[in-house]
User: Fold these one by one.
Assistant:
Number 1:
Amino acid sequence: MASSEFAVEMQDIVKQFVTPEGGILAAVNHVTMQIKDGEFFSLLGPSGCGKTTSLRMIAGFELPTDGNILIHGKDMSQTPAFQRPINTVFQQYALFPHMTVEQNIAFGLEMKGVSRTDRIRRVGEALEMVRLPGMEMRRPKQLSGGQQQRIALARALVNKPEVLLLDEPLGALDLKLRKEMQLELKTLQREVGITFIYVTHDQEEALTMSDRIAVMSKGLALQIGVPEEIYERPANKFVADFIGETNFLDGVVKRQNGNVVEVDLPGSGVVFVESSRKFTNGQQVAVAVRPEKLTLNSEIKDGNNLKGRVEEVIYIGTDTQYGVRFPGGQKARVREQNTSFAHKSIAKSGDEVMMSFTYVSPSLLTE
Amino acid sequence: MLKYFRGKKNSQLIGLMSPGALWILLFFNLPILIMLFISFVERGRAGGIKLPPVYTLDNYILFFNSCASDFAGSACSPFLYLGIFGHSIRIGLVVTFWCIAVGYPLSYFISKQKQIWRDTLMILVIIPFWTNFLVRTYALKQVLATEGLINTLFMNIGLINQPFDLLFNEFAVVVGLIYGYLPFAVLPMYASIEKFDHSLMEAAADLGAPPQRAFWRVMLPMTMPGVVAALVLVFVPVVGAFITPDIMGGGKVEMIGTLINRQFGVARNWPFGSAMSLVLMSLVLVGVIAYFRSSTEETRRAM
């Protein structure tokens, strides 16, 4: 089946829409990405970032203004949706309300001309797979949201597509069911070995499920990588901010010595950050560091130390969050895990503390 | 609707319903009972009925056997009236077919426009209602006449030497009826199509259905309630139509409506007219109920 190691390739894709005012809007702006065969790939971004438009172009519901879409090495940029070896799980499921569950799931097989007996057998198998056996004669309306979701999944997977597209399929489910379905989807994907392309605006969902993630914003793919890379080494401020929480400490590069960059945080002190990138002296940078990578101490520790004052203490169950302000005006949030029962706050509001972090935990971001 | 009424007291309910109910009782149900009575008595010499009433089944027998009349000659064909009845049903089916075949794509087209255009186009569909039906029919007659718009145009640009016979035939009647009843088909179908969730067509395409198959398997079944409503709203009045066949057919096209109309006019045979009306009504009613039974079952499952 695979004539290429990539299930889907988007080559310099542009999609422009004419706005009601007559202007031109680039929903997707020169996006290139390669999705490996058998991969769980997520398109992550806020609404309007172009992730759904990208998915719709892969499905064939929209044709790109420019660029090519290859599916297993074959150019399908202009192939209509019904001829593509791809199936979709829609956000609102889009189950056919006038058909039974069985007719819904069998629809794709029927279009392919699969015989009736084979259809019935495969529908049964698909229902087993989504753990809803015996639901053949129900109508979509008689099912709960979670059940409809599984039927939509079965209806797509029964066709054994080369690629399965999922457009925020868990968006309508409540939190608990959502978490369950995330794990289930991931397991299912490993079992069937089909390439999944998953659209979501939920960063946690993307981190949990994906082999790789593309973070999108304003029609651009800002960073493509494995979850650890995206989280630990964000490529820019947007990615750092969108995925999880990040403190940005604005500063200026003083000097760079090999991999060690010395950054002056005006009025608050100097920090050292390990980075393989090259910076010029005097360059404006942001030291981006996650709240959980920071610690509060009464004395100086190994690594970087910044003296500041605690402004607020917020207890949030698993953690306590401290807001610290530095003499130069910069602020940071620090998270300390509440490891013991009757955990006592490390510091209280107004205390003077030392905030410490290692040389490797921050990223230096310029944009 | 029902939910609204359920919360109301019975007295309020009766109060709300009584003007309409009274109207229907007085001007619809009562006249039907009068017609039922008239259909079972002998005709009067100058129209009306013979007094005191003489009860008879002859009016119904005459409908099913047109030779049962005193005036029937030796070359009488017994199925004259039944034939006209059948012919009316055929015209009804043809007109209904075309109204739906033209109206469905039109409704679809309108539903796909932007809000402002949708409203404008729907008003354009409804505007003909504001003109008197007779005036509209006469206007159409002028378009189709021998020296009318179409023939004059075609003659002048030299496409034809002889004018087409567009008027006073079945074609003219069918065109007139389609013209008159198209809005009745568009309105309910538009209501159905507008509600249709077009993402279902994407789902069908996604599952490998070419556009045509997606239409037959998904869109048409789901918009069927509108099509059924259009079918009833067009078919029932068209089968009984008498103004259009009269004007457009020029007396050459006989439909059950014109036949009934004549019994209350020049033929002065009220009892026979009443009998035919009742036969027409019951047959159409049976047909419509049967169709509704089968299709609502389908649509109920669809909804």
Number 2:
Amino acid sequence: MIVFQKVSKIYDGCTALNNLDLTIKAKEFVSLAGPSGAGKSTLLKLLIGEEKPTRGKLFLDKQNIHLIKEKDMPKLRRKIGMVFQDFRLLSDRTAYENVAFAMEVAGATDKEIKQDVPQLLELVGLIDKLNQFPHQLSGGEKQRVAIARALIHRPSVILADEPTGNLDLLNSWDIVRLLLKINELGTTIILATHDREIINNLGRRVITLDKGRVIRDEENGRYIL
Amino acid sequence: MLKTAIWRILKSGWQSFIRNYWLSTATVAVMILALFVIGGLALFNVMTQAIVENLEGRVDVSVYFNKDTEEAKVLSVRQELVELPEVKSVDYISQDEALKNFQERHKDNEVLLQSLQELDQNPLEPSLNIKANEASQYESISNYLAQDRFQGIIDKINYKQNQDIINRLTRLTGNIQMGGLLISLFLGLLAVLVSFNTVRLTMYTWRDEISVMRFVGASNWFIRGPFMVEGALYGIISAITTIILIFPILYLISPKITNFLPEVDLLYFYQVNFWQFLILMFGVGILIGGVSSLIAIRRYLRE
């Protein structure tokens, strides 16, 4: 469960999030909508501890995120899977190694890695591209590697920041379907996007942000601005 | 657990080095240049050292004793001198030897030799040739010999005649050594800075990767480790290449230098001190590579 209590984030006098109150239950699939600069990315950055709130508190599974020490941050990041618009894969490692890296940093044994990585790449439909480097993969394939990597620690939450922003319609829907499938398996998904088409077709909870405030929060919501 | 982590860090550093061979090659090339400068400077210093020693070796001070001085007395003075810390060596030249040397030196000069034969006794004085450890020490040796107790037996000390040239030599050798040291320090620093910057630039290209590693939950050491391994690898490869490259270069230029300065044989010196050179190159290379990486990476780790 994720709870925002009166959270504000101010960058050099510019308010990115303004007194935000928000609760996201476990296993929910939530879309964050809103124009660029509405505060979607800031909200995600606060969740992974990349930024600290200027005011207010923020909890993930009852743990106050901004009280976590820098040296314990890696543990938090292993609890949250992150997917980005620009994929953020390690360019000099193969698909397999990119996913394995996330396990290596957590100290998994070679045996566990050999067992889990192919399973996950199978789940995202890339079992035949294990040894390709990112530059040999299409945008949709890269994003699927990134999702496999985000899943490797069996996180309770996946944050997807404009995951379809660089993809064509067909690939975008592949990625969204994959996220829905992951959600069905029990992982909370927070999908930040300004793709009207996707939000309207999802039929899930939609939180619309504008100028750092929640202007609409509806179950089975639509993209309205 | 720790063993696995270290193994993974080593493997990852090696992989990054190999897979980005173009970047690695460029960085290694710059570091080879730097190590070359440092190695060259070390050899240059050996050479100036030899030149200075050579010049200093050519200077001595001779003490001439009165003709009737007993040999035992001259030898006791010699013994005293040998015990002085400034003195490197003292050669005794007896009257007979002095005569022999004289004849040898002037063997083409019939007139001189004939006039020498007409004398019924040896006109030359016994002497001591003194060599000091350093050119600046001749003055104190000369002062030592100027003591009253030597007055009766010593005829003359040729330090006064040589004083000017000795002083000039002292200054010259001092300048050569000082200049060599300054140039070495300056060029060495330059070399270190250039390779430091190159490694930093290399690491700069990895800044996005570093943020990715942070996102997937890598601890700082797990991120830093491979980059330091990579930096150290730059150092090791550059050191080995430099060490090998120095051989053919010395092979070509060493004989030319030996022609010019007979007592300097750089190739021989390099062979004899090979292991010291190897350690110097490895040390400097690994230090520059590893430390540069460490410093460069700090910026992207947000500590």
